């Protein structure tokens, strides 16, 4: 007898969940536990660093190993008399908000692993040692850490497929559709939260480089492009190094500071995008030159 399509997908969900729980076990019970033990002995890195690298992986592991996987297993064992998984996935969805923290922390975690591997050879050796074990399948810690980041989109895809393959009269239709909607919201929420957080972090970093000028700091701004530029001086036929920051609402014309205490640049001129004009120049002496004019003044600039 051919298995119904929706059952095949439910089984695939179960199989990938088993593999996923093994991966979480490796991250939490092997990497995190052993790195933490060595950190406590004062042999590798500060305990705080290990905690920062692994974020809330323990909660994620416990949730999947003790709750979601067993529930899913029970559902698949009873499939013949009760073919449904939608209700279990509805219980899963709210807990997926835990991933927000882990995913947001991911880039920082990878950076910390790199920095401390350089600073502390024993830390690097311990990681290398664990990576050599068969359970790691020749993959790096960073590779394993990426798995939770990719798990929610995976649920979304499998569940979409499951809903598509369900017979119209299936007892699981309502629950499965509701579950899919919930998962979709969580996925969207975590992506939006990450994007917004990154935008604010980048913006803040730029503001610090500019010396936190009051009239410039605005959380709703968006940095579009930044980079060095040459200012053309027609008076003495020379150029001097300047720096531009283009935001959605303003262009900042800056001078790199020689003595970098605090800020990296000094803002010399702010041109509002509203009413700003840009015109290309065909200057043989200064190729790639253009004029930027604002309400107050006009600059002749040369790009690389």
From TrEMBL:
Residue span(s) of domain PH: 222-304
Gene3D superfamilies: Dbl homology (DH) domain (1.20.900.10), Pleckstrin-homology domain (PH domain)/Phosphotyrosine-binding domain (PTB) (2.30.29.30)
Residue stretches spanning the membrane: none
Stretch forming the signal peptide: none
Keyword Iron-sulfur tagged: no
SUPFAM superfamilies noted in UniProt: DBL homology domain (DH-domain), PH domain-like
Top-rank taxon, per record: Eukaryota
Localization annotation: Cytoplasm, Cytoskeleton
InterPro entries (alphabetical): DBL_dom_sf, DH_dom, FYVE_RhoGEF_PH, PH-like_dom_sf, PH_domain, SOS1_NGEF_PH
Keywords, comma-separated and alphabetical: Cytoplasm, Cytoskeleton, Metal-binding, Phosphoprotein, Repeat, Zinc, Zinc-finger
DH domain: residues covered: 5-193
One CC-aspect GO term: cytoplasm
PROSITE patterns, per database record: DH_2, PH_DOMAIN
Single GO MF annotation: guanyl-nucleotide exchange factor activity
BP GO terms, sorted: cytoskeleton organization; filopodium assembly
CDD domains: RhoGEF (cd00160)
Name listed for the protein in its UniProt record: FGD2 protein
Gene behind the chain: Fgd2_0
């Amino acid at each position: 007898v051919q298995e119904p399509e929706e059952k095949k997908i439910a089984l695939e969900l179960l199989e990938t969940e088993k593999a996923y729980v093994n991966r979480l076990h490796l991250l939490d019970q092997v990497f995190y536990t052993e790195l933490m033990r060595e950190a406590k002995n004062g042999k590798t890195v500060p305990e705080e660093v290990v905690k920062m690298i692994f974020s809330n992986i323990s909660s994620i592991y416990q949730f999947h190993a003790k709750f979601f996987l067993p529930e899913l297993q029970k559902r698949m064992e009873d499939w013949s008399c009760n073919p449904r998984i939608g209700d279990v996935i509805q219980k899963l969805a709210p807990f997926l908000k835990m991933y927000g923290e882990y995913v947001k922390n991911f880039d920082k975690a990878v950076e910390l692993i790199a920095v401390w591997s350089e600073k502390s050879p024993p830390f690097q050796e311990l990681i290398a040692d664990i990576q050599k074990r068969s359970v790691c399948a020749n993959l790096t810690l960073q590779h394993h850490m990426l798995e939770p980041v990719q798990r929610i989109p995976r649920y979304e895809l499998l569940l979409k497929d499951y809903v598509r393959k369900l017979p119209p009269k299936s007892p699981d239709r309502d629950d499965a559709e509701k579950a899919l909607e919930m998962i979709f919201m969580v996925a969207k929420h975590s992506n939006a939260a990450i994007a917004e957080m990154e935008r604010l972090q980048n913006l803040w970093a730029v503001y610090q480089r500019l010396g936190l000028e009051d009239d410039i700091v605005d959380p709703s701004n968006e940095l579009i492009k930044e980079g060095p530029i040459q200012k053309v001086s027609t008076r003495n036929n020379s150029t001097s190094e300047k720096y531009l920051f283009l935001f959605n609402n303003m262009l900042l014309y800056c001078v790199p500071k020689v003595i970098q205490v605090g800020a990296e640049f000094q803002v010399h001129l702010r041109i509002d995008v509203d009413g700003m004009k840009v015109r290309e120049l065909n200057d043989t002496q200064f190729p790639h030159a253009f004029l930027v004019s604002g309400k107050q003044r006009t600059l002749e600039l040369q790009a690389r």
